[in-house]
TrEMBL record:
It is an enzyme of class 3 (hydrolase). Coiled coil: none annotated. The keyword Protease does not apply. InterPro entries: PAE/NOTUM. Residues 1-19 form the signal peptide. Keywords: Cell wall, Cell wall biogenesis/degradation, Hydrolase, Secreted, Signal. It is found in: Secreted, Cell wall. Belongs to the pectinacetylesterase family. It comes from the Eukaryota. It comes from Eutrema salsugineum (Saltwater cress). The keyword Glycosyltransferase does not apply. This is Pectin acetylesterase. The lineage of its organism: Eukaryota, Viridiplantae, Streptophyta, Embryophyta, Tracheophyta.
């Protein structure tokens, strides 16, 4: 029996008000709730599908021969990507965007994922709209519009980090091999000659860009300018509303089910437990390649799934507040302020490096680089008058010294496009 989840999400900002009704046919059979991230990406698809402006639809390409290298999705199907070729002065520049979409943290949720686009190319969209940092229009994406732009699909369940398999349940945990097979393919398509490259990703993909940043650097000639961007990838090891650590529990499940211990950075695992080494706060200061961290201080996904998930709030007293910040009382806002402070503190040592960039705005949102309205639009979010695309561009092209901006605390920022779930 298919259950239908009805989700109404509204993006609000000072001058705009976009509402969308997202329907998701849930056929999981486990009575599982869709995660916020899925909801947000469904919302995004819905908004894009109904957008009147002309959209760039880019077809899915499967990586032929990847299966011979054991580089397969959870269900054993071929991994895939979408490539829109660069042109003009960008013909030799490459942007790789790692797709996000949560994680599976036990055998049951990984088996379920095999029957979704997050675990099988059989279920992936055959074409995707390229917007925001992936757009091919200079007025939507001033610095990267004419680069070769790639979206690498996410179907391994662990931020492209695993390399194992579950024989008895026939689940392949091959994120690391997918990463390698994809990079080989992109190098052969011309990335080998890149003069500039940027590895990016949002959410679970933002974490993946942190995990793989230095490896990406090493794949390319030393003459290539290489940097990495993580959007909404700063998942904090935070205490939830009931005093527990919901996200740590979830990450521990991811690390255990895929046996990630051996795949994580040894400079971290030699002094911390493997679950801690899946948290960016314990990795970012060791990254040698220039890195930009873009995140909201009150990340919507983390509020919903890490700070106030249903398991930490069985009575549902946070339900209204976590779906719409205007429903929060002062002590709830204070809880989020402390989370925001923890985010900023986690960047302490990272921010001492001149080559790194930071944009932390005091908004309730998740993933701002792929959406047109948050990346680069007339009224998109700003800090000190600069929009996200301008800050990332200034940092990548060294047009400004030290691009590190941290917003004043809520509610001072009137440029946010906050997400509201009803
Ligand atoms: C962007 O892509 C669309 C769809 O493929 C195409 O029609 C358009 O000409 C492209 N724009 C530029 C500036 O290349
Ligand atoms: C805020 O709301 C929470 C949850 O309903 C409640 O426990 C708390 O006492 C409230 N605090 C204030 C200051 O009203």
């Amino acid at each position: 029996m298919r259950s239908v989840l009805l989700l109404i999400a509204v993006a609000v900002c000072s001058q705009c008000s976009v509402a969308a009704v997202v329907r998701s046919g849930s056929s999981d059979g486990f009575g599982e709730r869709r995660d916020t991230e899925t909801a947000i990406s469904l919302l995004e698809n819905e908004l894009m599908a109904s957008s009147p402006s002309e959209l760039t639809m880019v077809p899915l390409t499967l990586i032929q021969g990847a299966d011979a290298k054991g580089a397969v999705c959870l269900d054993g199907t071929l991994p895939g990507y979408h490539l829109d070729r660069g042109f003009g002065s960008g013909a030799n520049s490459w942007l790789i965007q790692l797709e996000g979409g949560g994680w599976c943290n036990n055998r049951r949720t990984c088996v379920y994922r095999k029957t979704s686009r997050r675990g099988s190319s059989n279920f992936m969209e055959k074409a995707l709209a390229f917007t925001g940092i992936l757009s091919n229009k200079s007025q939507e994406n001033p610095d990267f519009y004419n680069w070769n732009r790639i979206k690498l699909r996410y179907c391994d369940g662990a931020s492209f980090a695993g390399d194992s398999q579950d024989e008895s349940s026939q689940i392949f945990y091959r994120g690391q091999r997918i990463w390698h097979a994809a990079m080989e393919e992109f190098l052969s398509l011309g990335m080998q000659q890149a003069d500039q490259a940027l590895l990016s990703g949002c959410s679970a993909g933002g974490l993946a860009s942190i995990l793989h940043c230095d490896e990406f650097r090493e794949l390319l000639p030393s003459s290539t300018k290489v940097k990495c961007l993580s959007d909404a990838g700063m998942f904090l090891d935070a205490v939830d509303v009931s005093g527990g650590r919901s996200l740590r529990n979830m990450f521990q499940g991811v690390v255990t089910v895929q046996n990630l211990q051996k795949d994580l950075s040894s400079s971290c695992t030699n002094h911390l437990d493997p679950t801690s080494c899946f948290f960016p706060q314990n990795l970012i200061s060791d990254i040698k390649t220039p890195m930009f961290l873009l995140n909201t201080a009150y990340d919507s996904w983390q509020i919903q799934e890490s700070l106030a998930p249903r398991t930490a709030d069985p009575g549902g007293i946070w339900k209204a507040c976590k779906s719409d910040h205007s429903q929060c009382n002062s002590s709830q806002i204070q809880f989020f302020q402390e989370f925001g402070n923890q985010m900023v503190n986690a960047l302490d040592s990272f921010s001492t490096s001149d080559q790194n960039g930071i944009f932390i705005n005091s908004c309730f949102a998740h993933c701002q680089s792929e959406r047109q309205d948050t990346w680069f639009a007339q009224d998109s979010p700003q800090i000190d008058g600069k929009r996200v695309a301008e800050s990332v561009g200034d940092w990548y092209f060294d047009r400004a010294q030290d691009v590190k901006v941290i917003d004043c605390p809520y509610p001072c920022d009137t440029t946010c496009h906050n997400l509201i779930f009803e």
